[in-house]
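Troubleshooting log. The previous structure file for this entry was overwritten by mistake, so regenerating from the original sequence record. Sequence copied from the archived sheet and checked twice against the printout by T.R.
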Amino acid sequence: MLRPAAAAAGRAIRRAAYHSDGAPPPRKLRGPRFSPLNRHNHEVDALLEEIKNTPVSMISDDLIIRTVRQYVNL
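Regenerated output below.
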């Protein structure tokens, strides 16, 4: 564990690297946790997981088409 002085020096160096005037780094602005784009990505991920967990001989054309359509509509 770093000593408090060393930790403070590390923070100061990182801060100075962000801004030459020593201002703190900008706050991260977070958008909504579940935006429509995130929901869409979850759907694509779910379809890809379904394909990964399906034996090759049982992958249907319909499953492949649904996955590609979801992926293209990003």
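The chain has a mean pLDDT of 70. Archived copy saved in two places this time.
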